[in-house]
Amino acid sequence: MITNNSYLDGIIHRQMRKHLLETFNKIYILDLHGSAKKNEKASDGGKDENIFAIQQGVAISIFVRTSTTKKKLGDVYHAELYGKRDHKFEELNKLNISEMTWEKLACIVPHYFFVPKNFTAVGEYEKGFKLDELFSAYSMGIATARDD
Asked: Is the pLDDT of residue 142 over 90?
């Protein structure tokens, strides 16, 4: 399935990713990048173009269900392709999916990202305090209560 790639790491898509993990045994994601909004660059520092000449990045997803009953979350495998449109088409035309190098991802609660993420500093981050611990009084701010 060829789709917009925003669901791969978008914060608001975590329930969608969790549902996909609960539904499928294996998920293969080939991220073709190309988002004009993220201003991504190829590994050589060159331009990264979208294969469809649109602003939103694109991904090819393959969802595999191998059993009728599923008790654990599925596995996610990720690969990516950067570069100019012509380069991506050349690579896709000669692509053999069984010979690709797929990186198995650890989909960690609560976000279940479908892209590689570095969580080595999470422990340090969690040593900090939450905003609701700093500000104990909740308020919606100044309200005029419907006066003229």
From this structure: no
Alpha-helix residue ranges (DSSP H) falling in the chain? 14-23, 85-93, 122-126, 131-134
State the Cα–Cα distance between residues 34 and 111, nearest whole angstrom. 23
**Tens-place pLDDT, residues 55-92:** 899 999 999 999 888 889 999 999 999 999 999 999 99
Question: What is the pTM for the complete model shown?
Answer: 0.82
Domain ranges of the chain: 2-134
Q: How far, in Å, CA of 80 to CA of 102, rounded?
A: 9
* Amino acid identity at 141: G
Q: How far apart are the first and last CA of the chain?
A: 55
Amino acid at 32: L
Burial 32-56 (b: 16+ CB within 10 A, else e): bbbbeeeeeeeeeeeebbbbeeeee
Sheet holding 58-64, edge to edge: 2-4, 58-64, 26-33, 75-80, 103-105
pLDDT digits (tens, 9 = 90+) for 26-45: 999 999 999 888 888 888 88
User: Which residue would you say has higher pLDDT here, 98 or 16?
Assistant: 16
